[in-house]
């Protein structure tokens, strides 16, 4: 096949010693900077842009690819170890990853994430090579009604993370939706819940909400109930995944990309919604439902794999359509333009060496990342052995750095603390934290797509169901909703068991 | 033993107090265009238009040896209004400048910001770029005349896509166009998108009847034939693109988006002329010329009071359009 | 420094699932313990207040731009606000019927002890102080105070080691962000003096 021979040429480009060096350097720098609080992949790529100015384009983009993937992986590292996600794609990784780390399975969580990134990136990049033109055509056909249908599906999925008490889960979801309302209304520019403050005009960043609810809330909650007697450090545990782990996660690794890749490729996709959908899917399919919320390894493996594949999907739209679907893609697009290269329909013809070299270097970067991070996982995990006061002081410190460094606004610190106090209260009264975060992610997205769809149809409600895609999704939604009823007719469903946030083994 | 605590405290205090200033490398003297410690604020996110302009300008200025180490930083929020407010609050700071453009003028108005660009010190307008009116290649509209005729009949049924929120450049252009065609701006069904990506997909997929955006963003798609270019909004045709200006097509609209640099208020004359000279020299440099060519920007260099007067005129134009919309 | 309140384990009661009420209190104490037991009603009040806040914001919003389509900037907040009110009522009913939110457990969390409010307040105070001090004193100083203060609040008493660790961490973070990455952080009062 034509693509295959081009890809082989690409490998010839990517595997020259010099380009290999740039790839290694990119992966290292990306990981190192992605680990820093408050710096997500977009920021990392923007900050490292000047580093690549001296290089010729192919080398520069090979390095970029390394930085991008490295930064994404670095982001989930802090998410898992310290509960402080540096970017929205890593938020879900904290849900199961951090409890694992606390229980001494940090190395396994990191390894599951590393392999997940590898699998997701590999499969995603293979899909990119095979499907790029087809996917690009499809991406254009997806419009606001289709997005809104997906959002409805996602809201249905939220019910499975509401936890043992539905009413408390709903309360949490509504708190999240309220936080999501803050800011300028994107369609009309109307201020909502900003109380006249310009700092609130862009809304509350998902990362601030996640860090506030997860990290600050957790630190305060632990402070109120710090186990002072034992002083037992977190056990380091085994450094590697054992066969049981692998048996549980291999399917998750493989499933993730098929959720993540399509979302990356469509214009309003990104990584937040697919990571969340992957989380919910894994939870549904898991044989170890009692472990969810306390460190289920599938909950790290699936979403991480989906996130990485979504990054590959992002590249599809960017390279073939010149269409930046995420902030990182926008920065990379800008970088392309620095070199006088315009990504878009003509790129594959004009710059075949560069494009295929870049794609080949994605494979190379993935291998490098895995080789680098698997051995590092146990070392990272040892970080948690530092004494508790330092650990939680450090979490507070880095959460503050992350919130402040990006905009240099003191208000962000105050908002962070405020959300942290909400997180503390939610822990005290058993409101699960995850629905709130999901609410912040889904709420504004769903509202915008709903209103955009209605505006395009000039107010006609049929505008919501005028595409085959949206109709299909609504049928799926109806089936999911009808399923419990059907089951009730066929036989008695099992009694609902406690899901996440259970009190479980609070003893020793 | 007793002594160790005060010693540790002392050591810690010295480190955090004296460390940062000592870390700052002795930056060059303030001669010529050198402004040590100059910082350039970008009021939107990395990858956006002001960001690219600022980072390119900073890099070119360094390469041309005009000044060392310009620090570019982002302070996004409310379409640039947060950055504007911060800039105005840095009264008398001669080592700060902000990359901005028409979008910030609009955002300051549509957000009812208490601070506007008349509170800043205008330094220079750098580049400009016309907007384009584009449709998908399989759209029924072959010419701008056909499109506007259909638009006049049923404005509500022809949604217009743009990459900026109300008050931004891509919003102003279709409003001015509607006005010139005899459509009340309130009738226009303007659908805002986040940046160019989602908008492009919506135009290609015929989700919106037509799109309005900066010419640079879609140059490649136009050349590849994916998008059909119906008109450009500027006073002149764009080289290499086969499309009339709106004025040639009979609609009295002259609209270009522009980008420039402003500084905090309360600068001394010396500080102001120093900043202006830096951008004058930048404008004359080969590096900048090359960057403009690569990015497809048109030169629109204007400094000092003339730029200030231009800002006032743009502000008035924005206010007029927004008032017609009832903002 | 653990400051034990004399009331033995009211926290634990509220926190333990389906908390079996403790033994034999008399009249006033009983009412107090009922309130303690039902302190979750406070959450309902907060949700109610939040709902009212959202609805007030909706009603005072002047929709000044030409709005198109049936769903305007008010619709979604209206739904969310109403939802908050409904959930507040439903939660109150649940609590009065004996439902209890289970306080979150964890490796470092010991729910058998009463809540240590002093530490929580100290931490929140230290964090707030950092926010106030970061501009006048610079990031290195404020960051070091945050780390040291938080470690102190959490019970670390190495008076020689702690400030040094805090200072080094804060200074290194400053150096990496400000100098290596070009993300500006305020340097402190001595910038430009030395």
TrEMBL record, chain A:
Domain DUF112 residues, every copy: 20-437
ATP-binding listed as a keyword: no
Residues that span the membrane, as ranges: 20-49, 61-82, 109-135, 147-164, 170-188, 200-223, 315-336, 356-379, 391-424, 467-486
Short name of any one Pfam family annotated for the protein: TctA
Keywords: Membrane, Transmembrane, Transmembrane helix
PANTHER family assigned to the protein according to its UniProt record, in alphabetical order: TRICARBOXYLIC TRANSPORT PROTEIN
Protein name, as recorded: Tripartite tricarboxylate transporter TctA
Species in which this protein is naturally found: Streptomyces minutiscleroticus
Upper taxonomic lineage: Bacteria, Bacillati, Actinomycetota, Actinomycetes, Kitasatosporales
Automatic annotation (TrEMBL), chain C:
Domain DUF1468: 43-186
InterPro entries for this protein: DUF1468
Annotated Low complexity bias: 14-27
Keyword Transmembrane: yes
Domain of life: Bacteria
Keyword Transmembrane helix: yes
Stretches the record annotates as Disordered: 1-29
Keywords on record: Membrane, Transmembrane, Transmembrane helix
Transmembrane segments: 41-61, 76-96, 164-185
Protein name, per record: Membrane protein
